[in-house]
Amino acid sequence: MAVDIDLPYGWLLFILFLLANSPFIYVLSFLFNKDSSGGTFVAIFFLAVGWLGAIVVGILQVIPDTIDFAHNARFVLMIFPIYSLNYGIINITGRGLLSIING
């Protein structure tokens, strides 16, 4: 059984991520004196902000009482390239799922 994943303009998300992430990591490198501590921070930061942030904001957008908070959090987190990439992927695939559900 093959899985058909439709990700229109997904290639553009990855190209923009590559262009935005390099300067972001370069700026972060000045915050640390040792490579190991910087690498550990970047890994944890990417996990927390990129994946968990995108998932939490996506869930908060569905709950009626938290839509305004999710909207504001989304724009604050958009300054981080990893969040923008993951939010874009979730948004594009979510639209495909909604079209399947709605028929």
Give the key terms.
single chain, 0% strand, 103 residues, mainly alpha
What would you note in describing this structure?
- 77% of the residues lie in helices and 0% in strands.
- It is mainly α and 103 residues long.
- It has a domain at 36-102.
- α1 runs antiparallel to α4 and α2 runs parallel beside α4.
- The two termini are 22 Å apart.
- The mean pLDDT is 85.
The description of the largest β-sheet is: none
Radius of gyration from the alpha-carbon trace, in angstroms: 16 Å
Overall morphology: globular
Order of helices and strands: HHHH
| Class of secondary structure makeup | mainly alpha
How far apart lie the N and C ends? 22 Å
Strand runs, count: 0
- Average pLDDT, rounded to a whole number, is 85
Helix percentage range: over 70%
Number of continuous helical runs: 4
Uncertain segments: none
**DSSP strand content:** under 5%
